[in-house]
Design brief:
The protein is α+β, with helices and mostly antiparallel strands and 610 residues long. It contains 13 helices and 25 strands. It has 2 domains: 203 residues, Distorted Sandwich (Beta-galactosidase, Chain A, domain 5), CATH 2.70.98.10; 378 residues, Glycosyltransferase. 30% of the residues lie in helices and 21% in strands. Helix 4 packs parallel to helix 13 and helix 11 packs parallel to helix 13. The C terminus is likely disordered.
Length: 610
């Protein structure tokens, strides 16, 4: 059975990702892209669904692990009765190949190691054809099935009941290298990489990237790690930013809220772009804008809320029978049915991000403003349509307040593009629409009896997405209406001091009730607290939230407060970007510069006192 979610560390080459368990097993690996079919799928089943274990044979061995500073090179130090070893795992940074490298370095004494390789291509649907290859210059185990092939180099592996195993001893000062390389099955295997040289190149690349992060203030280490996670989830070649590295990790164990997050949501990618810009990463902004132009090219009426890494549009959702699900929580889904939804807030997030890019000095090109004009035309005709909202509800479409606020933000940024940057467009019409949308929100999206904005027009429920209103400039964090909304969120949505997205038993989403607090929403509350002068609450909640990260600084989507466990897909871009915003807000509220950004300040919250 798979380990707890927090027991996994991420490896990334910015093309794909692997999850390595605390037990030394790679239980999730999709090559050559994040959204490729898994070859190791034990994360969503057990070892028979594919894994690559490398660990001491001693079952009583203990370990500690950490990333080499500002990289995704993972160091795991194992201690046994006979000695200790360090296992170094990483994926080389490269645009033209896909590899996982592992080295066992003897630290003291002598340690017997076990390697257990179980290759299951195609989400565990295909057992590969395996053969040993031996030449004067090379040797390894080659496995192929359909379009996929890998070569595994290292200690000689022996077949044993649909798996391949090896045992070897490592003495102090000795290095044993292992390497897995994916390649199209119709080609020859790629040449072996030099471990030490490749490690140095990869280490330098990650550290050079992290060095450009312009953050000072509290939570610096957490901010840098979160920025690295966002970079790790950004596809090097295309510029697409995936929402998470995994699919179908349940929001609630035994529930059915299991979704595939290995795609590019315009919303999440736009929010990531804003955070990257706030911390000095303009080249990433240009890369993502180029991706956006390619992905949404064509008729604005065809704009989707999510795309594949290269802008693919056809992402039908289907359930897999080959994988039983994480710790028995099925179904396992590939693709995402939300691709067919209408979510009007997405265009607002895109407009805000592109305006932030302008403010950061990213110059317009011949396509970027025309794209926004086309999106503006679509929004003018469709802004009043009910939609599925930020949480992609699978119940009836509604007039969600957050969606309308983001429509307001879209028209606001269009007006500012014209007034502040001299860009041409029907500014007066945009101004009128902006005012119409605001009046409608105040008239229909604010419940005077409760003194709060509501989840949707005419309702009395609140939603954590309302915490975004000050972030996009719709109102001030200290506005009495916003403070009333915060009070309602504290009353209705706090679960042991953490924030739920909304009350699932209100039947708004068309699914069975029940989920855990959403980490990004709790960070939004931190931002609200810090922005409204509740610094002590902001710091208290922030300290609690960063404590939910695992031993290598990774956060998933949700947190099970009762069990003390992470839940949902991991690592989650939205959780990490919300952490960065919250840290910046605290830095500003305490007078310590957080980032070279022009965004509204964030806020903080307290844990069990609420």
């Amino acid at each position: 059975m798979a380990l707890n979610i927090e027991d996994y560390a991420l490896l990334s080459d910015s093309q794909s990702a692997a999850l390595v368990g605390r037990d030394g097993s790679i239980d999730w690996l999709c090559l050559p892209r994040y959204d490729s079919a898994s070859m190791f799928g034990a994360l969503l089943g057990d070892e028979e669904h594919g894994r690559w274990l490398l660990a001491p044979a001693d079952p009583t061995a203990t370990c500690t692990r950490s990333y080499e500073a500002d990289t995704f090179i993972l160091s795991t130090v194992w201690t046994t009765a006979t000695g200790s070893v360090e296992v170094v795992d990483f994926m080389p940074h490269s645009e033209d190949r896909a590899d996982v490298l592992r080295r066992v370095h003897g630290v003291s004494g002598s340690v017997e190691m076990t390697e257990d390789l179980r290759i299951r291509f195609g989400y565990a649907t295909t057992m590969p054809w395996v053969r040993q290859v031996q030449t004067a210059d090379d040797h390894g185990l080659v496995a192929a099935a359909g379009p996929d092939a890998i070569i595994v180099r290292g200690p000689e592996l022996h077949a044993a009941d649909h798996r391949h195993v090896a045992t070897f001893s490592v003495a102090a000062g000795q290095d044993v290298d292992l390497q897995l390389s994916w390649y199209p099955s119709h080609r020859e295997p790629p040449v072996a990489l030099n471990f030490s040289v490749t490690r140095e190149i990869t280490c330098t690349w990650w550290r050079d990237w992290a060095r450009n992060c312009t953050h000072e203030g509290p939570y610096h280490e957490e901010v840098v790690r979160s920025m690295l996670v966002l970079r790790a989830l950004t596809h090097e070649t295309t510029g697409g930013i995936v929402a998470a590295a995994t699919t179908s990790l349940p929001e609630q164990r035994g529930g059915h809220r299991n979704w595939d997050y290995r795609y590019v949501w315009l919303r999440d990618a736009a929010l990531t772009l804003t955070v990257l810009l706030a911390h000095g990463y303009e080249s990433e902004a240009k890369h993502w804008r180029a991706w956006l132009l390619r992905a949404v090219a064509g008729d604005p009426n065809d704009v989707q809320i999510l795309y594949g890494l290269a802008g693919e549009r056809y992402l039908p959702e289907r359930e897999l029978s080959s994988l039983p699900g994480y710790q028995g929580s099925g179904p396992v889904r590939v693709g995402n049915g939300a691709v067919d939804q209408f979510q009007s807030d997405v265009i607002g997030e895109v407009m805000v991000a592109l305006h932030d890019a302008r403010e950061a000095g990213v110059t317009e090109n011949e396509f970027s403003w025309p794209l926004q004009l086309a999106l503006a035309g679509f929004l003018e005709e469709n802004w009043s349509r009910p939609d599925q909202g930020i949480w992609e509800v699978r119940g009836p479409a509604r007039e969600f307040t957050h969606s309308r606020v983001m429509v307001w933000a879209a028209f606001d940024r269009l007006v500012r593009g014209a007034t502040e940057f001299g860009l041409h467009g029907p500014m007066e019409r945009w101004k009128r629409l902006r005012d119409v949308v605001r009046r409608e929100i105040e008239d229909r999206g604010f419940n005077r009896a409760r003194n709060c904005y509501t989840q949707y027009f005419g309702g009395d429920e609140v939603d954590a997405s309302l915490l975004v209103l000050p972030q996009v400039g719709f109102c001030d964090a200290n506005d009495p209406r916003m403070l009333g909304t915060v009070a309602a969120i504290e009353a209705d949505l706090l679960q042991r001091g953490l924030v739920l997205r909304y009350r699932t038993d209100a039947a708004v989403d068309g699914l069975t009730a029940g989920e855990h607090p959403f980490l990004a929403c709790s960070f939004w509350l931190v931002e609200q607290y810090a922005s409204s002068g509740r610094d002590a609450d902001a710091v208290a909640l922030m300290d609690r939230l960063v404590g939910f990260a695992n031993d290598v600084g990774l956060l998933s989507e949700e947190y099970d407060v009762e069990a003390g466990l992470q839940a949902g897909n991991t690592p989650q871009a939205l959780s990490h970007l919300a952490l960065v915003r919250a840290a910046d807000a605290i830095a500003r509220s305490t007078g310590i510069a957080g980032a070279a950004a022009t965004h509204d300040a964030p806020t903080r919250v307290s844990p069990d006192s609420l």
